[in-house]
Amino acid sequence: MAQPESLAELLNGRRAAVDATVPAAGYVVGWLVAGRSIWAGAAVAVVCALAISWWRLRHGDKPRAVLIGLLGVCVAALIALRTGNAADFFLLQLFSNAASALAWAVSIVIRWPLLGVIVGAVLGQKTRWRRDPALLRAYMRGSWIWVLQYLIRVAVFLPLYAADQVAALGVARIALTWPLVAACLAVSWWVIRRSLPADHPGLRHPVLAEDPATSATRRSADTPRPSPPE
């Protein structure tokens, strides 16, 4: 299987991890330095998110993706300000990971693994990868690693949130972002490569299974017709 790329390269895992951790770290630092002020923490988090957004736009990232990341930080800050509970800044993260675990698991069950959907979109394949049985199976197996990633975060975040451990939530957010994302990308890539046959051309070249109707038509056309009686 000729495949020089990795999932980390295709999906920009390091960049996404930086975007997720810097505002959260800024929130905790601002909250602590200002005497546990939610306003200060929220302000630092939003400033960090704005700086990252500016940097991403300057380097040619799509505005839509940049704005979604900025909006997530702003919503998290507004939730904490609204409730007056500093730990609620991480509530959106907790819900998003629980929802992501469910969505990825459902996608596997219905045979539309989200890992395949995402990689297929990045590679411009649309849904052609689903017509490759080996690639579909590999994406389904690799997607279970992503389900596990989200469940690990929920298992760690939930008790910390229940205990109102703001600083620990910030540390967990950092520890369970880049290291966990890196491990998830590496393991799911290993699972995909192990699941594909040795002679498979790789993610960029799905081996398309022949459509049954087309196959039947072709067999019918190839079947020699009996000669008319003389």
Automatic annotation (TrEMBL):
Region (Disordered) residue spans: 210-230
Chain segments annotated as transmembrane: 38-57, 64-81, 101-123, 144-162, 174-192
Keywords: Membrane, Transmembrane, Transmembrane helix
Protein name as it appears in the record: DUF3159 domain-containing protein
